[in-house]
């Protein structure tokens, strides 16, 4: 994982940060709103304690991730293998997140959690729900960003995404802003499907680099021409080059490769096709049951 600042990573970081923060913000918002309506505001401090603990735990995960990654990068012969396994693992986790929200596209489940926590009349229960919600989303963000981006721009993107999610949640709960959560999750799910497909394709590419996966056809297209050292230093690349204006954004968001192997493209298309089919099937059955 490079330390360079890449503007394209802001898009990927913003998408992941927003998507993950929205879920946590909705859970916290539902809990606080439920307490206010039930005149149990005295328990709100347990929720905020859980939020704080969740943030700290997420930072611990980030530190551990950076430490492990730094150790692997010192062994060049294993780096490609580790990156491939990490990206495929992140894709699997992201797929589980997508499927979860295909099955539960509304805020109804969040209200059930709040109701259960309230009925227990225990601050510890509220603490655990808020803590686990924030920690889970924070940990997922660390893994997805660490696996799918290459520059420090992703960190800024995550912060922007979290800020946007917080503003949305504030407007939703405090200002009566009408937000169709179901449609919002549908749109972000489409973007996450494309992002996960990129993780699958690039993860497989890293396994190919490590010699652990077949190549078959090395390049089915190549829009990554060599550039001079001067152009590289100034960031002057062709538009569709992986480091170009368009290609860089596509790489960060959708796993674009300027010179992919055949199996990379096959896996990308297969993943997107399979997830679109699964989304329609699960979404349809969910609508039928409502």
TrEMBL record:
Q: Where in the cell is it found?
A: Membrane
* MF GO annotations: ferrous iron transmembrane transporter activity
Q: Which residues cross the membrane?
A: 12-34, 46-69, 153-172, 184-204, 261-278
Q: What is the membrane topology listed in the Swiss-Prot or TrEMBL record?
A: Multi-pass membrane protein
Task: Please tell me whether the keyword Kinase is annotated for this protein.
Answer: no
Task: Please indicate if the UniProt record lists Membrane as a keyword.
Answer: yes
Q: Which GO terms describe its cellular component?
A: high-affinity iron permease complex
Under the heading InterPro entries, the entry gives: FTR1/Fip1/EfeU
Give the main localization category.
Answer: membrane
Keyword annotations: Membrane, Transmembrane, Transmembrane helix
The family database entries (PANTHER family) matched by this protein are listed as: IRON TRANSPORTER FTH1 (PTHR31632), PLASMA MEMBRANE IRON PERMEASE (PTHR31632:SF2)
What the record says about family reads: Belongs to the oxidase-dependent Fe transporter (OFeT) (TC 9.A.10.1) family.
Q: What is this protein called?
A: High-affinity iron transporter (FTR, efeU)
Native organism: uncultured marine group II/III euryarchaeote AD1000_77_D05
Q: Its gene?
A: FTR
């Amino acid at each position: 994982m490079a330390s360079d600042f890449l503007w394209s990573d802001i898009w990927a970081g913003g998408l992941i940060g927003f998507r993950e923060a929205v879920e946590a913000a909705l859970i916290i918002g539902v809990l606080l709103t439920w307490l206010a309506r039930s005149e149990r505001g005295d328990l709100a401090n347990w929720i905020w304690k859980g939020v704080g603990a969740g943030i700290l735990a997420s930072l611990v995960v980030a530190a551990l991730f950076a430490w492990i990654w730094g150790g692997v990068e010192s062994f060049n012969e294993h780096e490609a293998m580790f990156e491939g396994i990490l990206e495929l693992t992140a894709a699997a986790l992201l797929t589980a997140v997508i499927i979860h929200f295909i099955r539960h596209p509304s805020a109804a489940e969040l209200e059930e959690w709040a109701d259960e926590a309230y009925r227990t009349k225990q601050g510890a229960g509220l603490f655990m729900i808020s803590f686990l919600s924030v920690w889970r989303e924070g940990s997922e963000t660390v893994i997805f960003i660490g696996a799918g981006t290459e520059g420090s721009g992703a960190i800024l993107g995550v912060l922007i995404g979290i800020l946007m999610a917080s503003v949305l949640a504030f407007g939703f709960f405090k200002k009566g802003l009408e937000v169709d959560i179901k449609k919002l999750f549908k749109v972000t799910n489409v973007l996450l499907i494309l992002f996960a497909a990129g993780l699958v394709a690039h993860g497989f590419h890293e396994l190919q680099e490590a010699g652990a996966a077949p190549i078959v056809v090395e390049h089915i297209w190549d829009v990554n021409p060599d550039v001079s050292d001067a152009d590289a230093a100034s960031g002057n690349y062709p538009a569709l080059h992986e480091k170009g204006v368009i290609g860089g954004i596509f790489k960060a968001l959708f796993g674009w490769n300027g010179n992919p192997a055949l199996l990379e493209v096959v896996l990308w298309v297969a993943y997107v096709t399979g997830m679109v089919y699964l989304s329609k099937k699960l979404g349809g059955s969910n609508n039928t049951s409502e």
